[in-house]
Amino acid sequence: MTDVTTDKPALEPTGALSVETVLSVKHWNEHLFSFRITRPASFRFRSGEFVMIGLPGDNGKPLLRAYSVASPSWDEEIEFLSIKVQDGPLTSKLQLIQPGDQIYLGRKPTGTLVTDALLPGKRLIMLSTGTGLAPFLSLSRDPDVYEFYEQVVIVHSVRRVSDLAFREELEGKWAEDPLVSEQAPAQFHYVPTVTREPFEGNTQRIDKLVESGALFEGIPGAAKFDPETDRIMMCGSMEMIKQFAAFFESEGFTEGSNAAPGQFVIERAFVG
């Protein structure tokens, strides 16, 4: 009697893609998961950037999508945060990955959700919905960010409590983190809000938290956005980003880029 193996065919790297191994997977709920993969020695990125990742498509060719890196630039592994879309070309397959599986990783990360695209300031305020949290997880664990800004703030709006991925680490102000555990307790602020379920904290959308001033509670400085001192990053729903981009421009903020730093940035690769 011969053993029957069902090993998946090994992936082949290309000029634009390396092949990495899945190290761990965490399912936060039925439509949200995160996973860590190996990091090639040659892979360099700035905290906040995104990269192409993927799996073989039905035609055998790499099926790729852009994902923000959730781990900081110093981490020896690479982490991602993803939704599960049952009929999504990639996420329908990606949500099934297990440790030991192979995955494609692009060789050239890029993006504008980086400190290089912002002018110097006092407060870095990162507004996110859903998996838009990912690049801000990276930035909030980068020691350089705490040198550049006096206050580092993540605002995370979700529908359900279980959607608050990494809540424990964020509420703990990265106490277990080897590089920012000294600065984060005094400088880092986490503002979660849950809009569709009972929650002991904020339960309004980000725009309402801004209007009421609740977003700024416990954060040194004015209870409003100031283009002189505040630097803004946004990632998440198209609705939130468009609404706040218009709001910030009306308040005198200018949008920044890698070529021309400004007072707020969005990731246009995801917005279109």
TrEMBL record:
Keyword entries, A-Z: FAD, Flavoprotein, NADP, Nucleotide-binding, Oxidoreductase
E.C. numbers: 1.18.1.2
UniProt GO MF annotations: ferredoxin-NADP+ reductase activity
Catalytic activity: 2 reduced [2Fe-2S]-[ferredoxin] + NADP(+) + H(+) = 2 oxidized [2Fe-2S]-[ferredoxin] + NADPH
InterPro entries: Cbr1-like_FAD-bd_dom, FAD-bd_FR_type, Flavoprot_Pyr_Nucl_cyt_Rdtase, FNR_bac, FNR_nucleotide-bd, FNR_type-1, OxRdtase_FAD/NAD-bd, Riboflavin_synthase-like_b-brl
Domain FAD-binding FR-type residue range list: 15-116
Cofactor(s) named in the record: FAD
PANTHER family per record: FLAVODOXIN_FERREDOXIN--NADP REDUCTASE, OXIDOREDUCTASE FAD/NAD(P)-BINDING DOMAIN PROTEIN
Family, as annotated: Belongs to the ferredoxin--NADP reductase type 1 family.
Protein name (database record): ferredoxin--NADP(+) reductase
Taxonomic lineage from the root: Bacteria, Pseudomonadati, Pseudomonadota, Alphaproteobacteria, Sphingomonadales
